[in-house]
Amino acid sequence: MNEKMPIPNTIFPIGEKNTAYAQYFVGQSYLNMLTTKGLPIGNVTFEPGCRNNWHIHHARSGGGQILLCTTGRGYYQAWGKAPQELHPGDVVVIPAGVKHWHGAAPNCWFSHLAIEIPGEDTHSEWLEPVSNQTYHPLP
Q1: Residue ranges of the Cupin type-2 domain (predicted)?
Q2: C-alpha distances out from residue 29 to 25, 43, 101, 114, Å
Q3: Could you tell me if residue 49 is inside a domain?
Q4: How many CA atoms lie within 13 Å of 104's alpha carbon, on the beta-carbon side?
Q5: Least crowded by CB within 10 Å, which of 1, 81, 90, 126?
């Protein structure tokens, strides 16, 4: 973990380093799957400056993702739209087919619960990293 910044108080345990998806992140993230039965819910924690790549949740019907922000400060951005600052208690509903990214602010830890919305033929398509030109102007 990042020794320079204090780990935030969290409702859910941070979990292990997110090695399974590390190739799709800039920086270090941690994943604690709270449940994989029924409705998959993962607690994702981002070290300061960490963000995932642009990605799309595809589905023939239904699908998408819901983010329930629990700790720290982060960002969500849909392709072609301005970034949205996120704080504990914020909820982001991401419909299937929307290219987007999410992650921590440059100087703050961030955690959210990631809930996969059930759908038919769902899968995620991981795309390019979020460029420094997109990310570093954020406060």
Answers
A1: 44-104
A2: 7, 10, 14, 13
A3: yes
A4: 24
A5: 81
At position 113, the amino acid (one-letter code) is L
In a domain, 75, yes or no: yes
The predicted pLDDT at position 7 comes to 67
CB under 8 Å, gap of 24 or more: what pairs does 29-33 form?
Answer: 29/103, 30/1
Parallel, antiparallel, or unpaired for β 91-94 and 55-58? unpaired
Q: Is 116 within the bounds of a domain?
A: yes
Pairwise CA distance, residues 48 & 93, whole Å: 23
- pTM for this prediction: 0.92
Here the tokens at position 9 are 């108080």
Radius of gyration of the chain (CA): 14
Residue ranges, the chain, pLDDT below 50 = 1-4
